[in-house]
Amino acid sequence: MINRIDWLRNHSIPAGRRFINPLPDGFDGVFINIVPHTDLPVAENAANLLEKGAIDSGVDSLNVNSTTTGKHSSASFHFYAQAFDINKVNGIRVVEQGASPGVQALQSSFQNQATIAENFGPSANTRVRRDGKLVQKPKQASAHQNHLHVSSY
Question: What is this structure's pTM?
């Protein structure tokens, strides 16, 4: 298992990337748990989207289980450090709660962020094109019932 200190001993953080802040609103705010093998630097805009979206949603906690690692399509934003997957909201697996109020609040909050690109999960499956047009992506629904996939431009 790798941790930030061990990773930083052997790497430098590329320009425009940073680690996700697990307590973006302080000790009394939302807690963003990051699975250890996933705790790698991501694009600044992706980290900002995740942190601001989590704060604005009002959820207590979420679990990020994929950033730049994992199995994804070849065109995935994950490979550019601009995407993350969330498999738990408020301590409950997404697959067990579906489009619960917490999942809906989180996806709605992500959708309201200026840099949102993709927002796939039980409650919404949308992509915002670079020209700002919102496109419904219903075919993504079946692949995103057990997690939220969010990416940024």
Answer: 0.91
**Where does residue 39 rank: exposed (0-12), middle (13-18), buried (19+ CB within 10 A)?**
buried
Mean per-residue pLDDT of the chain = 93
Residue count of the chain, please give it: 153
CA-wise closest residue to 36 among 14, 6, 9, 15: 6
Where does residue 96 rank: exposed (0-12), middle (13-18), buried (19+ CB within 10 A)? exposed
Q: E strands along 1-108, which residues?
A: 17-18, 31-34, 42-43, 61-66, 83-89, 92-93
7: nearest Cα among 42, 33, 32, 31? 42
